[in-house]
Amino acid sequence: MHTAVVGRRVVLEGGEVRSGTTRINIRNGIIQSVEESNDETSWTCTSGGGEVDEGRAYGHRDRVADVVLPGFIDIHTHGLGGATDAVSFWSNPDYTLSRLPRLGTTACLATVVFPEGETGSVMSHQTRDVLQSLSAAMEQPAVGTVLEGIHAEGPVVNDCGALPSARPDMNLTDFKQLVNAIPKLKMMTISPHLEAQCDYTRLKVLLQNNVVPSLGHDKVATEAEILSALRLSPSRPLHITHCFNVSTFHHRSPSLVNFGLVDRFPNLPQYQGVLPPTVEVIADLAHVHPLTLQTMLRARHYTDIAIVSDAIHEPIAGKRLKYMGRELEVSHDCSRVSLVGSSILAGSCCSLLQSFRSLIDVFSLPLGHAAAMLSETPARIAGLDHIGSIAVGKRADLLLLDSHFNLQATLVNGQLVYESN
């Protein structure tokens, strides 16, 4: 099947924004060519996302928009609902995957947590059910957003934050069994402080299995512990999970946040041969204060920052939900989800599309840089080489927006999966 998308402003690889007339040719869901043209006489542009009559645009049906972006990729999302307990949301993948296209997300990693299982088991029955459902979903053709793999948030974490209690002391044998049991494991959040106590043996297992170690949920990791972890991967940067959240900064005793803010290490012996980690940030303006987020956006290059949702529900004001025997509540302004009776944040209700608009409107980022932090950068961090940019050979996951950045249509694999009214 041959289709095309035509845009007046198109974000290409590397955050380049091409203005004028650009035509993206798609065959069988893959981008075949990206053509620049100065001739607008052969097509009629709507206010965004509309269709041109067949035969009017280059001889067949094109979709036309003021702005065309690569589809957004969320490498940290707990799902939007679909079960009675938030820990089981991903046991019903279709619920979330069918809703994400209208929020601009065309691909994601399902974030799975690991409540302590029954005696003798490496995982709880809830987690086992979730993994079975995710495995089945990844074997089926996508009906909306594509599930690209799994981000395991734990179980080897020093500070759970709002996560259910896990097994931070999991032995190496059980850890290997767990890693092998997780289908398409792309990333795992792991504590450098805990790893330092066992010579980083579990972190080494992740690297041997081509899983990205994401340092996080650790408020006590020292500079030496973090550097030792980073040195284990001299050719590919490690990652930091939701920087600023469940992690700390200190001006004399560096910890994870200090490392997250470093674009280049000082020219001192202890930093030789060490790559600065990439980072992910929750840009809902609630998990991270705007002043702090502004600091991050100025300190790090946009190719090293992935914006994530850390979503745990849809934005339904006042909604209460269960979370492993505890109760969560969506704030009345839908900016956050907290443990009832506390100030502990459990996740977000913010979509990547909302975060994109904040990057443009609040932080005045260039269009190409903002789009890259939601597409090309997370794809590279998670090793998703087939998506993330508008380029020949990539899957045709595209967002069509009007001139005010309102989403008009979402294409996944070249197929329309969402269209606004």
Key attributes of the depicted protein:
globular; alpha/beta; eight-stranded parallel beta sheet; seven-stranded mixed beta sheet; 421 residues
Q: What is the beta-strand fraction?
A: 25-35%
Radius of gyration: 21 Å
Q: Please estimate the helix content.
A: 10-25%
Give the strand tally.
19
How large is the count of helical segments?
Answer: 11
What is the N-to-C succession of helices and strands?
Answer: EEEEEHEHEHEHHEHEHEHEEEEEHHHEEE
Average pLDDT across residues? 92
Instruction: Report how far the terminal alpha carbons are from each other.
Output: 25 Å
Q: Strand order, biggest sheet?
A: 5-6-7-8-9-10-11-12
* Tertiary shape: globular
Give a short account of the largest sheet.
8 strands, parallel
Taking pLDDT < 50 over at least 5 consecutive residues as the criterion, the unreliable ranges are 40-59
Give the class from helix and strand content and strand pairing. Answer: alpha/beta
